[in-house]
Amino acid sequence: ELAAVAVVTAGNESAAAAAAAATAGVATDALERRVGVVAGSRAHMEDDAVASRTLLRNVLMWGFHTLVTVLGGVCGVRDTQCGFKLFTRASAAVLFECMHVERWCFDVELLYIAQSLGHPIAEVAVNWHEVAGSKLNLLDGSVQMGKDLLMVRTCYVFGVWSVPRAAARDRSPTR
Fold first, then answer.
1. Which helix (H) or strand (E) holds 121?
2. How many angstroms separate the CA atoms of 56 and 63, rounded?
3. Which residues contact 38 (CB under 8 A, 6 or more apart)?
4. Which residue of 35, 66, 105, 152 has the fewest C-beta atoms within 10 A of its own C-beta?
5. Are strands 2-6 and 84-88 parallel, antiparallel or unpaired?
6. pLDDT per residue of the chain (175 residues) written in tens, 0 to 9
7. How far apart, in Å, are the Cα atoms of 30 and each of 4, 84, 101?
8. CB atoms within 10 A of CB 57
9. What angle do CA 25, 28, 29 make, to 5 degrees?
10. Is 171 within 8 Å of 94 (Cβ atoms)?
């Protein structure tokens, strides 16, 4: 069984529309491939997005992707911040119990936990449209995301937070 989660941030209601449009095909694909987590991705649109974004936005985007891999410990997922995630019921039950971050980087923590527990992750293309009038201050938001990434890494490395491996063994991520 699958559980869909769409994260909609203020001023970015397109995440809900992308999630609704993608759910049917993604669900079928996830069931066939037996993955525990499906992450919607705008990475297939990167060439177009790079062309239409400012140099500052592009530098921040590439920097964040690098930090997600280095600090966040998430490998192989090109777009962690897309607002569409799909989980098997078993994966959702295990992963959401472990969550600590409630801000922008909660996606990174969620995917880090999934990878740590061996839950298979698939990244699928979703259609995405930028919404004009973003309320995110690029500089302030970038600093906050960097701090959150550092906090996630520090808390897991030094044992402040842990991934409960015993509970994860009791549940298959693909049930």
1. strand 121-125
2. 10
3. 26, 29, 30, 85, 86, 87, 121, 122, 123, 124
4. 66
5. antiparallel
6. 555 554 444 445 455 455 555 555 655 566 566 788 888 887 766 555 444 667 777 787 788 888 899 888 899 888 888 777 888 888 888 999 999 998 878 999 999 999 999 999 988 887 766 666 666 787 888 888 889 999 999 999 999 999 987 555 445 565 5
7. 12, 14, 26
8. 13
9. 85
10. yes
- In whole angstroms, what separates CA 59 from the centre of its chain? 20
Cβ count within 10 A of residue 121:
19
Whole-structure pTM value: 0.78
Rounded CA gap, 139 and 25, in Å? 36
Place of tokens 């009038």: 133
CA dist., res. 15 & res. 151, Å (int):
26
Count CB atoms within 10 A of the CB of residue 50.
13
As a whole number of angstroms, the distance between CA 24 and CA 38 comes to: 12
- 42, 61, 78: which is closest to 138 by C-alpha? 61
Q: What is the widest separation between alpha-carbon atoms in the chain?
A: 47
